[in-house]
Give the backbone structure.
Amino acid sequence: MKCPFCASMDTKVVDSRPDKDGTAIRRRRECESCGKRVTTYERVEELQPLVIKKDGRREPFDRLKLISGVQKACEKRPVSSETIQRLADRVETRLQEGSDREVPTPIIGEWVMKELHDVDEVAYVRFASVYRSFKDINEFMSELQELLTSGGVRPPRKR
Ligand SMILES: [Zn+2]
C-alpha cells in the first residue's frame, strides 16, 4: 500500500485488530521510508445487491418474496414449483452478476415479466398488472387486446 505522505510503496502493517463492532479490520501501517503511520480499515464487501423500493428505501434482495409474488401470479396455472424456483434462480443470478449494486424494484419486475412471458401467458398478464404500473385501465386493456388479437403475449411496450 502506497504511503499517502511520501508515496513510497514500502509500508508495513504494525498492528491489526477488529474494530469495535467486528465488521472491519483496523490496521496501522508504518511507512518504511518516512516513518509516518496511517490507519486503514478493511471491510467485507456486501455481496448481496440492494433493492431500491418505490419509497427510496433499500433492502437486501428477498428471494422468498419474489417467489411468493410469482406463485400468486401462477395460481391455478400449470406451472410447477420447480419452474418457479428456476425462474427465481435466473433473476437472482442476473442481479448478482450485474454491475449495479442497487437495483430498483421495477427493473426486477421487468426481468420477472420477461421470464413469465416464456412460462405462462396468464401468469404473465397477472404479474404485469400488479408490477407494471399501467397508467390507467385503458393502457392495461390495450395490452390485453393485443394479447387476444395476436394470439400470443408480447412484452409490454417500452415507455
Ligand atoms: Zn512515507
